[in-house]
Amino acid sequence: MNLENIDLLTQKVERVLEVIRVLRAEKAQMESKIQSFDSVLAQKDEEIAMLKSSLEERSVELTSLNDTVKNQEEEIQLAQERFQQLLSTIEAELGTEISIAPSEQDSSSVPNEQQEEAPQSDFFS
């Protein structure tokens, strides 16, 4: 081989080595970015786990509250039915219909104010 060929080969080897150095540097940068992304991903996974846990707790709480409301609705319904039965019994005994809606006069009066009774005639005299 002559010197020119050796010089050409040397230059080619140097270019290949330079490309390898650049590629290794890029690889190191990419690995660093991957580690950074893995760290961020791990943090996000932790956040998701915490949010899922919180969501499950709130779901249980909501279910409990819904059950409470349902039970209270059933109790109110039962109380209303019992009240209607009692009212019907009282009306049957008295032979008259009792209005349970407050009248305008009742709602306009002050509850703490003493109301005077109308004088009644003596039935025994």
In short:
With 125 residues, this protein is mostly helical.
Describe this structure in words.
- The chain has 125 residues and is an all-alpha fold.
- The protein has one domain (3-91).
- Helix content is 78%, strand content 0%.
- The protein has helices spanning 3-94, 104-108.
- The longest helix has 92 residues, at 3-94.
- The model has no long low-confidence stretch (mean pLDDT 87).
Question: What's the SSE blueprint?
Answer:
Layout (H helix, E strand, L loop, with lengths): L2 H92 L9 H5 L17
Keywords:
125 residues; rod-shaped; 78% helix; mainly alpha; 2 helices; 0% strand
- What proportion strand? under 5%
Would you tell me the overall average pLDDT? 87
Percentage of helical residues? over 70%
- What is the number of helical segments per DSSP (H or I, 4+ residues)? 2
Structural class: mainly alpha
Q: How many E-type strands?
A: 0
Order of helices and strands: HH
Radius of gyration: 45 Å
Give the biggest sheet: none
The low-pLDDT segments are: none
**Span between N and C termini?**
155 Å
Dominant shape? rod-shaped
Our count of domains comes out at 1
